[in-house]
């Protein structure tokens, strides 16, 4: 059994590793200053004064990023949240069309940031190189310890970094977790067909999820569960970085949960029926909320297909894609 000192050293090392990962992400974004709340600063000071703990690489990583106490109101500054104790949260009613009720996952250990993101560092690197650098940070991420423990791998995103259209889903499911690519199951196959109907291919767009790890399920349970707001909040900065690097002309949010994750709102605050079909905006980019393909698989009504298609035609228009007469008439009742 580890002594109290050994346990504390191990926990501090883990905290430093998390901070190191986060600092790497900040530097990638071009941030050179981190604003901290008093609580976070006190936590860091405690870690820094622990004499019996070897200085890990993570602390060295932070040293090239200036850390100063937060003086601006929360939400207007980049915050480095202290690691919170892992807590269980109550399961929430499943509003997602394709996912089961949540089995009360643990809260993420830390949040990279819930504040507005800084511009990504503009260097001579291509979008593909910058995405690859980000992927290297996301791959070993363990900010949500419970998801890191249950995942097969992180599911970063796939497609053309120079695309005009980017699709955003909620989280990887079992198939995506196995293959490491978003939207590869039955819903993914339908998404591929929807993209083909637009006159382009899957390789022409970029596809990513708000959450990069599959939401964990109780042992022996099959299927997928809806991600918790706290999980999506923790992972959202990675998606924000992907969007900032790619700078698509238009974003498409697939399903209500993806919109909730992008907006950072609690389930039940918005409805897809009110939002879909009308452009909103995310980080200055037009965002079209539409049905998740899993919903369209279950609801085969031609009226629902037509609604989704009308949303996609609006997306095509913003992306500058031609729309033929034949395309205009898809899914119209004869
Ligand atoms: S869900 Fe996102 S933030 Fe959480 S462990 Fe996975 S990659 Fe990290």
Brief overview, please?
The chain has 334 residues and is an alpha/beta fold. The chain is 41% helix and 10% strand.
Relevant terms:
two-stranded parallel ribbon; globular; alpha/beta; binds iron/sulfur cluster; 13 helices; six-stranded mixed sheet; 334 residues; Uracil-DNA Glycosylase, subunit E
Task: Describe the fold and architecture.
With 334 residues, the chain is an alpha/beta fold. The protein has a domain of 205 residues: Uracil-DNA Glycosylase, subunit E (3-Layer(aba) Sandwich), CATH 3.40.470. It contains 13 helices and eight strands. It has a six-stranded mixed β-sheet, with helices on both faces. A two-stranded parallel ribbon has the order 1-2. A hairpin with a 2-residue loop joins strand 7 and strand 8. Helix 4 packs antiparallel against helix 8. It is globular, with a radius of gyration of 21 Å. The N and C termini lie far apart (73 Å). About 17% of the residues have low confidence.
Q: Which regions contain 5 or more consecutive residues with pLDDT less than 50?
A: 51-97, 111-120
Tell me which ligands are bound.
iron/sulfur cluster
The end-to-end distance, rounded to whole angstroms, is: 73 Å
Approximately what portion of the residues adopt beta-strand conformation?
5-15%
The CATH H-level homologous superfamily of the domain at 90-109 and 144-328: Uracil-DNA glycosylase-like domain
* Order of adjacent strands in the largest pleated sheet: 3-5-4-6-8-7
* Largest beta-sheet details: 6 strands, mixed
- The count of strands amounts to 8
Structural class, please? Answer: alpha/beta
């Amino acid at each position: 059994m580890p002594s109290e000192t050994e346990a504390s050293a191990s926990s501090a090392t883990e905290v430093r590793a998390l901070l190191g990962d986060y600092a790497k992400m900040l530097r990638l974004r071009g941030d050179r200053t981190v604003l901290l709340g008093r609580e976070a600063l006190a936590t860091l000071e405690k870690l820094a004064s622990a004499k019996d703990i070897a200085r890990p690489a993570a602390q060295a990583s932070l040293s090239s990023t200036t850390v100063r106490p937060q003086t601006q109101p929360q939400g207007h500054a980049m915050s480095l949240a202290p690691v919170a104790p892992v807590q269980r949260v109550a399961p929430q009613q499943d509003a997602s069309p394709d996912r089961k009720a949540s089995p009360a996952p643990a809260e993420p250990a830390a949040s990279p940031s819930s504040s507005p993101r800084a511009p990504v560092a503009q260097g001579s690197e291509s979008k593909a190189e910058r995405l690859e650098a980000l992927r290297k940070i996301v791959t070993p991420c363990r900010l949500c310890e419970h998801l890191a423990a249950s995942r097969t791998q992180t599911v970063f995103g796939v497609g053309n970094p120079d695309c005009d259209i980017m699709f955003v889903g909620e989280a990887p499911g079992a198939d995506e977790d196995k293959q490491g690519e978003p939207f590869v199951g039955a819903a993914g196959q339908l998404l591929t067909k929807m993209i083909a109907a637009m006159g382009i291919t899957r390789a022409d767009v970029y596809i990513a999820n708000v959450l990069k790890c599959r939401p964990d399920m109780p042992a022996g349970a099959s299927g997928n569960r809806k991600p918790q707001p706290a999980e999506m909040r923790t992972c959202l900065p990675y998606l924000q970085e992907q969007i900032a690097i790619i700078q698509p002309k238009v974003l498409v949010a697939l399903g209500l949960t993806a919109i909730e994750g992008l907006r950072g709102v609690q389930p039940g605050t918005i409805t897809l029926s009110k939002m879909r079909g009308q452009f909103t905006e995310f980080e200055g980019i037009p965002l079209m909320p539409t049905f998740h393909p899993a919903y369209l698989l279950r609801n085969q009504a031609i009226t629902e297909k037509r609604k989704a298609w009308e949303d996609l035609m609006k997306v095509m228009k913003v992306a500058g894609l031609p729309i033929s007469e034949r395309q205009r008439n898809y899914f119209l009742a004869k």
